[in-house]
Amino acid sequence: MQYIIMLLIVIGLAIADYLTGIIKAYCKNDICSSKMRKGGLNKLGEVIIMLTACGLDIGIHALGKYYQAVELSDIAGAVTAVMVFTYITVMEIISIFENYAEINPEAKWALKFIRKLKLFKEGENSDEK
Predict the structure, then answer these.
(1) Model-level pTM?
(2) Backbone angles phi and psi of 125, in degrees to 5
């Protein structure tokens, strides 16, 4: 059930980001089918990555049964799925708020929120180096 919830959240955020991107392009008179196609394919890619992470979690758990390491495999699989889910979620929320800030330049609070989320995201990336 947790995988379905993760996938639904990622799909919902991807759709919200895509729609806010379309609204932003409309407001700026910058609608371009190639950008929309690329954006849609990027969102599809995110869903595929999330599906892969969920499948990996299930697979690692099943493999752990064969090696009598069920607890260890549960942790490894869950960490993988949760990390991918967290990254995609933060990335999508930043993008949605960036779109909103461009749609409504009066929304100064959105810009502050974006800066905080970008700092959080950059903190995650610095750990990878």
Answers:
(1) 0.77
(2) -70, -35
